[in-house]
Amino acid sequence: MNLVIVESPTKSSTIKNYLGSSYKVVASKGHVRDLPKSSLGIDIEDNFSAHYINIRGKGDLIKELKKEAKKADKVFLAPDPDREGEAISWHLVAALDIPASKIRRITFNEVTKNAVKEAIKHPREINMDLVNAQQARRILDRLVGYKLSPLLWKNIKSGLSAGRVQSVVTRIIVEREEEIRAFIPKEYWTIDAELLTSKDKPLVAHYFGEAKNGKKVEITNGDDARKIVSDVSGHEFKAAEVKKSTKLRAPAPPFTTSTLQQEASRKLNFQTQKTMKVAQELYEGINLGAENGGVQGLITYMRTDSLRISAEAQAAAKDYIIEKFGEKYYPKTTRVYKSKANAQDAHEAIRPSGMNLEPAKVKKYLTFDQYRLYKLIWDRFVASQMQSAEIAVVNCDFECEGHLFRAAGNTVKFPGFLSIYEESTDEPGESGNAKSKLPAVSEGEMLRCSETTPAQHFTEAPSRYTEASLVKLLEEKGIGRPSTYNTIITIVLTRGYVNREGKSLVPTPLGEITTKLMKDSFPDIVDYAYTAQMEEKLDSIETGKASLNQILSDFYKDFSKELDNAEKAITPGDYQLPVEETDLVCDLCGAKMIVKNGRFGKFAACPNYPKCKNTKQLSAPKKEKAEAEKKEPELAPFKCEECGSDMVVRSGRYGDFYACVNYPKCKFTKPKETTVVAKCPKCGGDVLQRRGRNKSIFYSCSNYPECDYSSWDMPTNEKCPECGEILYRKKTKDALVCKACDYQKKD
Description:
Number of helices: 18
């Protein structure tokens, strides 16, 4: 018997269908070992050696995996094909005590039968360069987090956490906000002339500048604009030059992780976290029914910055395009896209795993979000292999009384890849297939002007970053890697450094004051170029060109000096969060009271503390609150079916229900509809919110007693990204937590 260990239970169920009875497939549910949470876990003096421990809550799983590994002839380690997956494989060997003779590391870029079987045929050893690259990132982040956080607690606010890349990302968002605040709008004017050709066909020409030299002129005030309008009023416009040309527009390359995140944000309104979650589901496998081969992975691995496409995928795309659109829609030579210089080329670009599963064909087996993202990936890949579009472009210059006006139009002569897909952008007016067609105009033709319209405008401040534009910037600057963008953005949001307003990312006062401290005392940590160089150093460990110990040593030598200097230089009060004022006035000194956080929550305090120690509650005392909450019983929207009296809401052992007001004379009752909170992890039924005998809320399956699932914590439909189990919302924590491992996701 052979054992195959993958990361997620979903992937394990998919792969089970591909391998015979001589293979057992199990899931590690993410990492099984990590650095301890209660201590640094790094011995700096001993070449930064890491002390790893088994993750709390995974003891039973490790015991079970160890037993299976002991029985197996061979152990195929099949976590994801990246640094993190390589590190998980390495940790599994240590935690399960797998003998070297049994170890077989396998990777596959797509979860399909052929890919998995080929991987089994060609196992390899664990790549320690990849493992060390992952360890270096983990140790760097631990050093920064554990050494910096106490400094933030002491000088800004208790409970804060610092991070190497998250601090840079917060700085980017803070500095954009500072640009917006400092922006001074400038006035400018535009003039549109509505012209009529000799055949009375309308077109609009825009003021450009001086006719004599073709120089562009900016109109900065209304007087200049009105003078130009006065000059041309009542005069004909001469078509001085008409240029016609045909331009070829090439398709965008297939998706990488970052471009998928950007485009899913623009086109589907997905946050990066949602994009990666849905992409993971498509990669790991969906049950597409017996007619489509059962459980299938629909896309290739979704964490990649490579633009490479396999020859087999290119050939399949060619056949599909010719059959679907015709031969003229396929280019004379196969399209090959060049990846960035620092791209990790181990994987292909993100593409469909097979051209036989069109989105429309499998739509009924996918959720709405899965279908939309799959179609986006499908369309982008197919378009990337198609013929360029041919665009007919017309540019006309019109002269009138020494002033130059311009009009432009274009039409699609041959759609090519535009038949299926067009890339969008973050800039308004840049995306979209322009189809405005100018009427026929001959050089020297005189056109009548029906109206000239001046319009006042003001320059606008730079836009706040969205997740899409932030990911684009991070990629351009080399900050982080595609696999980390989602985690970075999630961290700065959950830790309160940044808020999301609509699609925009806005720094909080906490984010701004923390960034100020970091820029003052740790300029290297928040320096864009330095962070990008560190990513390159991590890449050099992966390629075997640098050692883990050397890079960590070089980093810590400078970092420890900055840390010592900051401890000496920063004094209490240097970095204070702005206070939140209330409408309450202090009874003792008349000052406007401010909000403070205490052991039992927020309260109002006098700003003149310690001279004045007056405080007030911001909420009513428990007794008053209980009195305020007393109210008449909730009436049902119907009458008692037995006696015709009112029905009211009552609470019972199994939740709220309707009862007759004449109880106990009339004992008629009726169940009250209960809130559905999630799908049952045991049977797939609805999990309902119920109320117990002591009015405490609990959650249980609607199929009780056939299904006995129940929980005091509210289950959700979200899966843990580390182990694949469901996440719960605990009553005592403002977070989603996984009961199988230590993963937490703060609200």
